[in-house]
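Obj.: predict assembly geometry.
Materials: sequence records (below).
Method: joint structure prediction, all chains together.
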Amino acid sequence: MAIALNLNDQLAVTIAALGLIFLLINILRVKKSKREFLAASGKEAVETLVHVSSEQGKRLVLGLGHSLTSSGIGLSGASGLSLQKALLKRSLFSDHPLQSFAGDGSLACLSRMIVQGAYRGAVASELFRGSISQMGGVTPVTAVTSLTNHISDGDNAGLLLAGQFSPMLVLLLDQADRHDLPVITSVPSLSGQAAGFFGKSTNLIGEDVFDPAGKLNQSKAALASLSAADWLRIAISVGLILAAILRMGGSLP
Amino acid sequence: MKRILPLIVGGLSALTVLAAVFLPGQGSSVLTVLLNWVIVLAAITFLVAVASLALTHLRFIITGKKGFLLSLTLLFSFAVTLVFGFLRGVEDPVFLKWIGAVVRPIESALLGLVALVMMSAALKIFRERGWSALTVSFGVSAVVFLVLGLGFLQNLNLPVLNGVIRFVEGLPMIGARGLLIGIAIGLLMMAFRVIFGMEGPGND
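Observations (raw structure tokens):
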């Protein structure tokens, strides 16, 4: 069976294959102690917020976005789940564990599974409370407005927005600014990343949005994929430069 | 077994979708079937999430939790919409008109608010973040693109100027492509972690 791929598909397959090879190599070579991949602000931001919330005895609120299956199917909508897992581990037994809100049915179910998994992993299934992971709304507007309701709560130490958000998230950031609530945004879309520069919020961009937990997530898989992403970025850059040179030399159409 | 079975199913599904994407003829029928499964599954998860939401807010009302009036409003509007939806059908024009009469004005008002907030944000950025390379380049590019958007310079029809305008108008695309490449790389790595079971609800 012959498979005829066009040039774009061939490039996509090559990049994916390279990514897989780099990931496998890095899983074998990366040590847990090494962590030099994220920019300093991204590396520290979430960890600092966790410390602040522990000191103040307050909770962190996590918005997981509004899109996983509702408006087009895309894995990028689930980028906040790894952050939820990392933060839950640290706040599971505190008075105010991490409170998360999802704006999509599938995302809400996955988020609930993560909460349940965290309690099961800590051998404390009897403490599981579903209310710490709720569905906030089912459209981009309702997902944002439901979160806006929680900003004025005095029990909040910070707001984290990790997942797909429409530019309406500026409403959230504005409210957070007015209540002096620290915010970290990690949105895997261009419009969301642009909106994330609002006010005093810490904004993660590019591939950093897929590792928002920064220092908190020291799993070998996370470290290996960060390193592999760096290698892949270098490979793509070299490829782009070579293509530009070949194009200028007339070797490429 | 409890962990391995979902991992195998997930991994095989992902590989099947990947193969189907690159097999235009044979793959499209497989993709259609898989997409239908995803729609059914997403609908079920949505129902589960809605039921869970209703139960959570019902619990808030029963226990008299702070802000339970909002929960009451939510459950009341949910029940009204559900009952009318069942009675008249979701395609009924009267039902859609009622829902639209509530939802559209609220969404329009919020969008108007977003426009105002964005305008104030553009001014606040200098106060909040000070005069840095980021804020200055933001201000300069906003003014430049505002001027270019007016179309006055393009109407002068100067070949050299038109070349410069074309170059400047291409700059945001370069930045956007850079960010999109970054996002795509991160997404690819995340996809591999999910496919190979390194990322999941319960595992570490």
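Conclusions so far: The CA atoms of residues 36 and 42 of chain B lie 10 Å apart.
To do: check interface contacts against the pulldown list.
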